[in-house]
Structures are given as structure tokens and as C-alpha cells.
């Protein structure tokens, strides 16, 4: 019998507020957290807007030593982990360390600290031969992304399998998919899983400027990210973390845990086509969606809401709209679709986990978050994209998708357990 996987705890650090409650309030209000970049002087760059987290590590419960030791991305992850564990209601003494795993997503690792330290050791780039005597003792931790998974494992007291998953913009979904597999195969009973990212740094801005993926709409930061809108012209970078506590469903029920939802299906594909290009028909994403639904043993008509990738680029929005039609058929026209990136930006490796947290909260609360900034519908995009205002609607099955540079396409189905048991 296949072991089923439940979400029993959620922790969030996101633009617009630290904590799951603040996160959900932002999303359901339709407010945006995008603004002019404050982390560094962005004036030389083409795109100068981002969704930043107002985060003080000490106020968020980290000690001075923890704050010194960890990169910003690891700080996000540890704070979110502590909230998720508290939210799960787990007795720390009842957790079996050897049966608890860790699976954390990040696309760019400890970019913020690496860039900061390179500036120091090279004296702001003026010296070709860097002076290692100026290196901080923590630099190696910043160099290896696996340090983030280690920090989360330490925070959770987890001694089972620990891994970093880094597949670009689908990393958050892929890490959760890996975690689900660990529980299903019986390697562990619980996994602390999710994604974290703190990419807002000059090197990241330069990388995205080079491929013209980010919006140049610098004069109106709050409305810069416009998924599915006719005037959309690029994504907005974001940062943040979401950590979920995943448990074997029957064990969770036996201990009386609150079950937000079940992760019932996951699949990924790669188009093997182009680094940034996407085919309008969305074939590979559609295949991932079909496979995830098949794993869930659910018909496409069961899908009640789609949490879209919705990055706000011309190509992506056409691509996934085509994928929804190809995979769901006529039912695609009956399903509300929205993009929370319109409010919290695109946090690369973290966004998939933030989106799954939103999917679980949609199921629990019966509220579908809107697509902000969708004022001028694109005639070529003809689905229901939930413009501007959240919608009250009981939802039993949610589909979430991710699309990443390199051709990565992932799909995850999150459901009310009773919907899968029917």
C-alpha cells in the first residue's frame, strides 16, 4: 500500500511580512510587495525593482552567533523551519531523528554572502590578486549550498537523509517532490522540506539583465509584475523561504495533527530545447501535469484551482496557458488560475515552496488568491486568471506548476485527503 504524504506544518519568510499569517494576509488582500531595490545601489542596472523581505535576524529569533554564521538564505530557512515545527504541533521529544529527513531547494545558494565577501577580499574589485586574510571564517559555508540543508537539519534535530535540490526555478517543487518520495519509499516518516533564496545582489541583477528576463518598469515598482496582462514585460526578482513539515498521513492522523492538505502527485520534465525559450503549446509542462494527476489518481476535471508559474514574461504566460488547455482539455476554461508572483516576485529556488504553502492555505481557507496588476487582459490568453481580487471558493484539488530556465517543467497536485480517498 502506498504511503501518503500530508502537510502538517507551514513556516514562511516572505516579502510583505515574516510568518505564515502575514504572508496569507498579503496574498488574499491582493497587495504587492514589489519596490525599488534597497539592498544595494541598483542605479546602473536595467531592472531596478524587486520584492524584498523586511527581515531582522535578531527580531526573528536568531542569536548573534547564528546571524553571523549563516547567509541570509539560511537565516530565512531556519526561521521558517522553527515556525513550521511549532505550527505542526510536534513534540520535539517525540521526533525520531533518524527517521526525519531534510530536503531544501535553492537555485543560487549563498549568493549574497559570496558577493559581499568577494568585494571585501578584492577591495571592491580593484585587486586581481585577492587577499585571503580578509576572508571571514564562515566563507566555506557560503561556498557550498549544502550548508543550508545542514542548518535546517540542525534546527529540526533531523539526522535522516539531507539534501539540496537545485534545478533553477522549479527547485522548490522538486525538493518537495523528492521529500514525498523519501516518505513513500519508507526511508523516513517525516521530512522538513521547502525552499529558500536570497538572490537580490548585483551579480544576480546583472545575470537577469543580460537575458532581458526582468522588467525595466522601474517607474512603477508596485505594479511592475503583471502576469497574463497585455502590458507584461518581464519578471520581478524576489526573495524568501517556505518550509513545510511533511509526514506520513496515517501517522499524522493518529497523533491528531492538523492536516492542511496532501501532496498526492508530482512529476517533472525537461524540454531539451533552449535555455530560455519555450514552445507555445506547452507540451512538456502538459506531460508533467498529466503524470502528476495520474499519480494522484485524479481526473483533470477534479482540479479546482491552478497556482500558475505566472512569471510575467510574454513567452511563459502563453506557454503555460497552452499547457493547461492541453492537459485539462475543456475543463481548463472552468478553472480559476492565478499567479502570486504578481505580489511577492519570483524568488527562484524558493518560489515553488512558497506557492505550495499558498496552495495548502487555499484548500484550508477556501480562498483563491488573485493575480495582482491584471488590468488589461491579453486577448491571446483566454482563461480565468482571477484578476485583482481574491475569490472565496471551496477547493479540494489544486494544481501548481513551475517552469525554469534550462527547460525544466514541474507539476504538483495538492489535495484535501478526502478528495483523493473518493
CATH architecture of the largest domain: 3-Layer(aba) Sandwich
Uncertain segments? none
CATH superfamily of the largest domain: Thiolase/Chalcone synthase
Tell me the number of structural domains: 2
Largest sheet: 11 strands, mixed
Average pLDDT number? 95
Spell out the helices and strands N to C.
EEHEEHHEHHHEHEHEEHEHEHEHHEEEEH
Residues in β-strands, percent: 15-25%
Instruction: Give the strand tally.
Output: 16
Reported by name, the CATH topology of the largest domain is Peroxisomal Thiolase, Chain A, domain 1
Supply the CATH class of the largest domain: Alpha Beta
Rounded Rg:
20 Å
Shape: globular
**What would you call the structural class?**
alpha/beta
Tell me the distance between the termini: 16 Å
- The quaternary state of the protein chains shown equals single chain
Amino acid at each position: 500500500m502506498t504511503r501518503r504524504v500530508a502537510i502538517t506544518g507551514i513556516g514562511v519568510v516572505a516579502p510583505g511580512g515574516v510568518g505564515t499569517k502575514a504572508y496569507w494576509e498579503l496574498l488574499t488582500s491582493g497587495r504587492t510587495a514589489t519596490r525599488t531595490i534597497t539592498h544595494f545601489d541598483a542605479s546602473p542596472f536595467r531592472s531596478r525593482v524587486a520584492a524584498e523581505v523586511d527581515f531582522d535576524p535578531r527580531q526573528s529569533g536568531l542569536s548573534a552567533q547564528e546571524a553571523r554564521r549563516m547567509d541570509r538564505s539560511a537565516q530565512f530557512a531556519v526561521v521558517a523551519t522553527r515556525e513550521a515545527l511549532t505550527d505542526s504541533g510536534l513534540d520535539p521529544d517525540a521526533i525520531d531523528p533518524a527517521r526525519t529527513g531534510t530536503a531544501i531547494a535553492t537555485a543560487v545558494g549563498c549568493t549574497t554572502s559570496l558577493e559581499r565577501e568577494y568585494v571585501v577580499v578584492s577591495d571592491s574589485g580593484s585587486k586581481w590578486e585577492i587577499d585571503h586574510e580578509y576572508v571571514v571564517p564562515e566563507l566555506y559555508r557560503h561556498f557550498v549550498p549544502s550548508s543550508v540543508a545542514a542548518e535546517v537539519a540542525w534546527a529540526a534535530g533531523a539526522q535522516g537523509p539531507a539534501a539540496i535540490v537545485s534545478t533553477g526555478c522549479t527547485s522548490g517543487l522538486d525538493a518537495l517532490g523528492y521529500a514525498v518520495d523519501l516518505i513513500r519509499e519508507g526511508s523516513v516518516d517525516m521530512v522538513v522540506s521547502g525552499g529558500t533564496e536570497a538572490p537580490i545582489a548585483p551579480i544576480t541583477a546583472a545575470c537577469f539583465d543580460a537575458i532581458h528576463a526582468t522588467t525595466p518598469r522601474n517607474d512603477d515598482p508596485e505594479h511592475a509584475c503583471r502576469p497574463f496582462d497585455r502590458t507584461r514585460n518581464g519578471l520581478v526578482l524576489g526573495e524568501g523561504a517556505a518550509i513545510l513539515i511533511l509526514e506520513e498521513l496515517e501517522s499524522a492522523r493518529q497523533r491528531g495533527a492538523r492536516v492542511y492538505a496532501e501532496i498526492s502527485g508530482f512529476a517533472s520534465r525537461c524540454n531539451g530545447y533552449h535555455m530560455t525559450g519555450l514552445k507555445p503549446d506547452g507540451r512538456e509542462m502538459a506531460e508533467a501535469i498529466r503524470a502528476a494527476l495520474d499519480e494522484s489518481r485524479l481526473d483533470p476535471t477534479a482540479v479546482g484551482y491552478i497556482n500558475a508559474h505566472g512569471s510575467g514574461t510574454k513567452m511563459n504566460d502563453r506557454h503555460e496557458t497552452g499547457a493547461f488547455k492541453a492537459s485539462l482539455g475543456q475543463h481548463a476554461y472552468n478553472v480559476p488560475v492565478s499567479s502570486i508572483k504578481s505580489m511577492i516576485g519570483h524568488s527562484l529556488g524558493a518560489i515553488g515552496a512558497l506557492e505550495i504553502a499558498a496552495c495548502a492555505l487555499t484548500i484550508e481557507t477556501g480562498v483563491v488568491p488573485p493575480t495582482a496588476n491584471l488590468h488589461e487582459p491579453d486577448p491571446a490568453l483566454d482563461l480565468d486568471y482571477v484578476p485583482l481580487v481574491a475569490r472565496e471558493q471551496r477547493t479540494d484539488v489544486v494544481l501548481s506548476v513551475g517552469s525554469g530556465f534550462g527547460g525544466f517543467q514541474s507539476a504538483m497536485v495538492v489535495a484535501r485527503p478526502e478528495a483523493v480517498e473518493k
